[in-house]
Design a protein that fits this description.
Largest sheet: 5 strands, antiparallel
CATH superfamily of the largest domain: 5' to 3' exonuclease, C-terminal subdomain
Helix content: 25-40%
CATH class of the largest domain: Mainly Alpha
Distance between the termini: 36 Å
Number of domains: 2
Strand order of the largest sheet: 3-2-1-4-5
Order of helices and strands: EEEHEEHHHHHH
């Protein structure tokens, strides 16, 4: 299992990056929420925390390995928990991460299905399932990213629970 890769960021595309690690160039799928930050890091050395999964149909013998990269280990842990929800597979979860993990976790904890429905690939029923299965289980991600980050930024308490 590949749990992290450190190398030079060579290219950023819409949903993936290319990371040069020694003589090997890895292609990693990445959450949309990280694309802007990654675009400003092209040419720099960075570490991505990874999950590897197999995509395809085993019965037909066409399994293809895929790597997903996360800038923060906490984002990877949230992703693993997020994909435990029935109907939220790896592809759906990756598409849905259009907002920072802290915002998504905070929406789950506050049972804000309207926010979750705005995530790419998440409908009303799936948003309700996410809340039903994960509310109370992702508070560490909401607190760790949302409130602490907002407090550190010096924003007033009223801004702590708001997001676009």
């Amino acid at each position: 299992m590949i749990s992290a890769l450190t190398g030079e960021l060579r290219r950023v595309e819409e949903d993936r990056i290319h990371l040069q690690c020694g003589p090997i160039l890895y292609e990693l799928l990445v959450p949309a929420a990280d694309i802007t930050e990654l675009e400003s890091s092209v040419g720099q050395t960075l570490t991505l925390h990874t999950i590897m999964y197999l995509e395809g149909d085993a019965a037909r013998g066409n399994l293809e390995p895929r790597l997903i990269g996360f800038l923060r280990p906490g984002d990877r842990k949230f992703f693993e928990r997020f994909t435990t929800v029935k109907g939220v597979g790896v592809k759906t979860a990756l598409k849905a991460l259009t907002e920072p993990v802290g915002h998504i976790a905070q929406a789950i904890e506050s049972k804000d299905t309207r926010f979750l429905i705005r995530l790419k690939g998440i409908g009303r029923r799936t948003a309700e399932l996410i809340v039903a299965e994960l509310a109370g289980k992702v508070q560490d991600f909401a607190t760790g990213y949302g409130e602490k980050a907002v407090v550190a930024a010096g924003l007033p308490p009223a801004a702590r629970l708001s997001w676009p």
